[in-house]
């Protein structure tokens, strides 16, 4: 109860600081991104945009206090199951219930190209296609869930969309 109250207070404080047109009901994408950046160190625009869309359950381009509390509940304290569903939603760019090869590449190119490594970014995508257990060329939630249960590090394979332990 006290954590929820703190989240609501934080929400109210952030909304009060905001001067956008949504201030009466919540906050918009820019304010949400600023919060993700300042509170959790997120810098990847694409990831922050996807996190916004995942929090914004009713698709009205505004995070309400309920969406804020429910989203942060999974984001900060979610069970493995909840976090898997959340990450899958973040990575499923077109919302069709699958992560296609194109979606993998879109997510991976941002995180892989920034790493100064010898490995070709396409190799990382090929490695991830190995978790396509039913070999249909795309990852279903079942493929993703099985892979993450086998290797928890895969939860953020396409880019960090969860906060670190700090």
From TrEMBL:
PROSITE patterns: EF_HAND_1 (PS00018), EF_HAND_2 (PS50222). The keyword Ribonucleoprotein does not apply. Residues 43-78, 79-114 form the EF-hand domain. GO terms for molecular function: calcium ion binding. InterPro entries: EF-hand-dom_pair, EF_Hand_1_Ca_BS, EF_hand_dom, Recoverin. The keyword Repeat applies. Keywords: Calcium, Metal-binding, Repeat. CDD domains: EFh. Gene3D superfamilies: EF-hand. PANTHER family: CALAXIN (PTHR23055:SF60), CALCIUM BINDING PROTEINS (PTHR23055). This is EF-hand calcium-binding domain-containing protein 1. It comes from Eudyptula minor (Little blue penguin). The gene is Efcab1.
